[in-house]
Write a structure and sequence with these properties.
The complex is a heterodimer of chains A (about 375) and B (about 130). With about 375 residues, chain A is α+β, with helices and mostly antiparallel strands. Chain A has nine helices and 19 strands. The longest helix of chain A has 10 residues. Chain A is globular and about 60 Å long. Chain A starts with 10 loop residues before the first helix and ends with a helix. Chain B has one domain: OB fold (Dihydrolipoamide Acetyltransferase, E2P) (Beta Barrel), CATH 2.40.50.
């Protein structure tokens, strides 16, 4: 199978930095530069930057846009009534199957920006536009939009240095206009690492300038998708396509908190309410594996009987051992339950835990 | 990068011969490809190993790979450092990152391994 891979505006930068490029969701992306553990630590201790320009950005605007979004997503759009606020949400089909997980930003009067997974760009676009009334306009801005995540306890200090005088970082889960190194951008106080930080939204033509300006700081480390994955899994953040997909509902995926059943009708509401009422048959749990590394697809066993498969799995650089997630029967989803994972040569003990696996981060300091 | 006194196989292991004992590890190219090593699973002293067959596993953050024996024989020593500090394989794969020592049952197998020069061109094709 030969597939033409897409490249972000930072492709040449990645090569120049010695990034190891791999195919990901139809894009050619850096999996690592100096090493996953090193990059992971840079984010937990200082600042790491990630090219996430492959992600999809849609802008929706017009009369009735809030009401239309309210029907499309599971979370309550009224929560982001204030301009500049944002929320994490799911978008489901009529059966409650998860089409994608999204961040919705209230970017303007009668206007929202929706950021979705790169692999789901086409599906998301079709689904959203099919469900919009004529009064609402949708624009796929992905091709002209670059996204750079700046994450870590020192991230805001770096952004402040680069920003216009008097810049104040938007509060957590908010977005604001800013000028970075003279370039107009949007700065969103969001991320996927569990650290404090921002995601910079800019025009593709400005991505290289901003990337280089960030790297001019000694304390900033370029990070690839490898570290992005270990960082997000330590926090128990779900990954679309691995921890959830169209075949799973939000309740089973442990994402019931992103569903507002009381907000009124929305696509998938009935199905999700039914599952919540009856209780899910299987649930996504965290697995702590002190002696081995669980990997996607490995069997999960209880008393020697297979009860599920590893969804996400990796070595946690912070904990120094394996962590993962798996869908298991609800009776076995209780924290403390002893399961095992079939590694290639042996079975390793896996204890059911409630993520996050790593609790003390710069973000937990901000949130509390 | 590929010491001349070692022999190499296509699975990127190296062999250093001292009498009838072969010290075995993985090449610098292999450790570079793997990335940071987090676990190594090795046989015990006394275990047999067979040329071309798996004698263990090496695991990085991203992936897990088999280790293949470049020669046959019996394990006489296992690097004790690798249990707690497998990352030394990244730092010095030809020195402190060695894996096992094998008392060879058929030293003739050495002839089937590559010289440093041959291995270098082999790697150039793989990369």
């Amino acid at each position: 199978m030969s597939e033409v891979l897409l490249r972000t505006p930072l492709y040449e930068e990645h090569l120049a930095l010695g990034g190891r490029m791999v195919p990901f969701a139809g894009w050619e992306m850096p999996v690592q530069y100096s090493g996953i553990i090193e990059e992971h630590r840079a984010v937990r201790e200082r600042v790491g930057i990630f090219d996430v320009s492959h992600m999809a950005e849609f802008r929706l605007f017009g009369f009735g846009v809030s009401e239309a979004l309210q029907r499309i997503v599971t979370n309550d759009v009224d929560k982001i009534g204030q301009l500049g606020s944002a929320m994490y949400t799911l978008m489901c089909d009529e059966d409650g199957g998860i089409i994608d997980d999204l961040i919705v930003y209230h970017t303007g009067d009668l206007e929202y920006m929706v950021v979705g997974n790169a692999a789901n760009r086409g599906t998301d676009w079709d689904w959203i536009t099919e469900h919009l009334p004529d009064t609402v306009e949708a624009v796929d801005e992905s091709d002209r939009t670059a996204l750079i995540a700046v994450q870590g306890p020192r991230a805001l200090a770096v952004i402040r240095e680069l920003a216009q005088p008097g810049f104040e970082a938007p509060p957590r889960f908010s977005i604001a206009e800013a000028t970075l190194g003279g370039t107009p951008v949007l700065v969103a106080r969001t991320g996927y690492t569990g650290e404090d930080g921002v995601e910079i939204v800019c025009h593709v033509s400005n991505a290289v300038g901003i990337w280089r300006a960030l790297l001019s700081f000694q304390e900033v480390t370029p990070c690839g998708l490898g570290a992005r994955d270990t960082l997000r899994l330590e926090m128990g953040y779900a990954l679309y396509g691995t921890d959830m997909d169209r075949g799973v509902d939000p309740i089973s995926a442990g994402l019931g908190w992103t569903v507002s059943l009381q907000k009124g009708d929305f696509i998938g509401r009935e199905a999700i309410a039914r599952i919540k009422e009856a209780g899910p048959v299987r649930k996504l749990v965290g697995l702590d594996v002190p002696d081995g590394v669980p990997r996607h697809g490995y069997a999960v066993l209880h008393d020697g009987v297979e009860v599920g498969k590893v969804a996400s799995g990796t070595f946690s650089p912070t904990l120094g051992h394996g962590i993962g997630t798996a869908y298991v029967p609800t009776a076995l989803a209780v924290p403390g339950t002893e399961l095992s994972v079939a590694l290639r040569r042996k079975h390793a003990t896996a204890t059911v835990v409630r993520p996050p696996f790593v609790t003390r981060t710069s973000l937990s300091a901000v949130s509390s | 990068m590929y010491p001349a006194d070692l022999r190499y196989d296509k699975e990127h292991e190296w062999v250093k011969v001292d009498g009838d004992v072969a010290t075995i590890g993985i090449s610098d190219f292999a450790q570079e490809q793997l990335g940071e090593v987090v676990y190594v699973d090795l046989p015990s002293v006394g275990d047999p190993v067979t040329r071309g067959e798996s004698f263990g596993e090496i695991e990085s953050v991203k992936s897990v790979s088999e280790l293949f024996a470049p020669v046959s024989g019996e394990v006489v020593e296992v690097n004790p450092e690798l249990q707690d500090t497998p990352e030394v394989i990244n730092q010095d794969s030809y020195g402190v990152g060695w894996m096992i020592k094998v008392k060879m049952s058929d030293p003739g197998e050495l002839d089937e391994l590559m010289t440093a020069k041959d291995y270098e061109s082999f790697v150039a094709q793989e990369a």
